[in-house]
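Hi all, long-time lurker, first post. I run a small reading group and we've been trying to get comfortable going from sequence to structure in the token notation. Rather than ask abstract questions, I figured I'd post a concrete chain and ask someone more experienced to write out its structure so we can walk through it together at our next meeting. Sequence below, copied exactly:
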Amino acid sequence: MQTTLLGLAIALILALVAALVGPLVVDWGTYRSLFEAEATHLVGVNVRVTGSIDARLLPSPQVTLRDIAIGEGAEALQARTLSVEFALGPLLRGEWRASEMHLVGPQVALGLDAGGHVKVPALAVGFDPDALTIERLSIEDGKVTLTDVANGGSVTLDKFWFNGEAKSLLGPFKGEGAVTLAGELYPYRVAAGRYSDDSGLKLRVHVDPVARPLSIELDGAVMFAGGAPRFDGTLSLARPVGIAKGAQVTQPWRIAGKLKASGQSALLQNLEIQYGSEEQGLKLTGVAEYKFGKRPRFDGVLSSRQIDVDRTLASGDGTRAPPAVALRRLIELGGAAFRPNVPTQIGIGIDQITLGGSSVQNLRGDITSTDDGWSLDRFEFRAPGFTQVRLSGRLAIDGDKVAFNGPAEIDAGDPKVLTAWLEGRGDTGQGDMRPLKLRGDVTLATERVAVDRLTAEFERKTVSGRLAYVFAAGKAPAKLDAVLNAPDLDIDVALAFGKALLAGSKLERPHAMTLAADIGRATVAGFTGRNASARLKIDGDGIDVEKFSVADLGGAAFSANGRIVTSGTPQGSVRVDLDAPDVKPVLALLSRVAPEAAQTLETRAASMAPAKLRGQFSIEGAAPATLGKLVIDGSLGKVRVALNAQSKVDVTTFTAGDMKLDGKFTADDGKMLVTMLGLDHVVAADAGPGTLTLTANGPARGDLRLDTRLTANGLDAGANGTAKLFAEPATADLRLTIARANVSPLRRSGNAPLPVTYNGRLAIAGKQFTLSDINANLAGT
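-- Answer (accepted) --
Happy to help. Here is the structure in token form:
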């Protein structure tokens, strides 16, 4: 455009030279038609000057034109003001040297046609471009509209300004300026050599966006062969280090390569991508191509033999983030740095990645852009624990939140090593676990981990269903939602697997849980159970046990159902029923959750069979006076059981306050009662009824006032005092009284009676018993 306007200025200067012999003050508006005719002849298209015309001769020739239009229709060039001042001495010698040219408000439309040729106004400059030198060239408040007919797209460069110099209209020229694009300011520096038909135009452009910590540099040659533009040179995009973001300092990155561009495409060869410093950064190489036209797209391939993520993302003190955290940070950084607005596909190939102190090998896959992130296709890699991972799906990026959703396959030879590595634990040595195979639709997000259509196989057993774990956040607890189905499951192996897999795990135990499970055949400690089913929900609103049952566990049947609401006014109840001809399978199951209690009861299993127990727990009353009640009745062997307990309950933490307990165990044969209590190796009872009564009052977590009495034929004993039954370890301080008893089982041989009476203190601390203040009589002594 500046060539056209300079042609118009030359026409005006010709008139000025003629006027040197005329008066000093001239009404130049009367020469408007002459100026327009001469300018039209020089530039080859119609020129109109609709505004005022000002000119002066001394001390140097200067002309100012306002409201200029060059050409017709949409391709017309327009400008609000053109002002040119020439050096007087060179002008008198026939040299055109503009000491200053100032252009205000130019508007021009440029573009590419469907064949990739440049669309510009059809100008034909009728003078030698080398005859004009511009010492100071300034443009302000310009507007350039770029269009592409092939795809119908357009870009407007607004508020364009430039300050520089030009040795001739063919170059070289240099200067600086700025342009506004989509509301953001882009300062630039430009330098160009002399244009020729053979070598084109050597060009170097440097852009520093104000709103983005980014530097863009273009260096090469622009050529126009048959009206089709071509560029051959280099392109570099870089972000400097030290840009503060919150409390962190951003890492630098750089993308550079050899660029070959035309009206149809741009090919970036010898591509190098570096994230981080020169010494510690990640480096990738490859090639990329951008296709213009009606359906623009970007395709690239990136590769590397080895990258060290640990070194790149290490904190200031040298500590490294766990692999799961490091991967999320890389995804966030990559997503923030590159969010294309055209379809994009990138192939990835990395031989080895150092991550979490171990190596991830043979990472391969394709990444395709989507509206809200990226799509991963055929991604696979080998992870620690002899693990092969294959996945595809959608990677969504929203601010600092990252989420992956899609099908995944994990074949882990040693799942314990894999889990330890993912969480950044040091115990990543080879474990003793057997292979695990997982299949399912995986969701990995900042707040949750979920697997739908889950199929897990270990120990030749298959479990299917779905699983979702929600991480604790603020006051919201961790949550677990699971639906599991297994035709055959070894519970011992499953529990051992889970314990080993999560050993040292940082996952918080879920305080809210929804579980639905159906197991056709289950094995526990050698006992086989059939038709196990569970439907239960535990959360801040209470407990809902729709169904919890085992139809056959070594002949035993167990069921539970009910609902307790803890929100609002607490209320509800849960009922439990147990019918076990043999209690050994029940104790085997109990040993998995309460091993010490199961071990204590194991020696009494025979005397406790058959077991038929019914229990019901209920709560009622508004807080803080909520009352919990527990009722248990039935029989253990030939001993009848009746227990009644009640306590104030805090439904938010489900802890008990002051409580009251009344219990009674009765038997037609006191020997069976003594045996069931595990006292048969201490005392002997004669044939006849037996009874054990128990009362307790006080704070559940404090000192309970305890009173108990055991009577049978030939046996009368009791104890009272205080006890902390739910402490760890349990303690008691009791006054023990034995009115009569036969302790002959303490003899190593013989069955002769050994009568005893006793009065004294009994202190219990865990497994330690202390007798003091003794007043006893043993066989008359």
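A couple of things your group might point at:
The two ends are 128 Å apart (CA to CA).
The longest strand covers residues 132-148.
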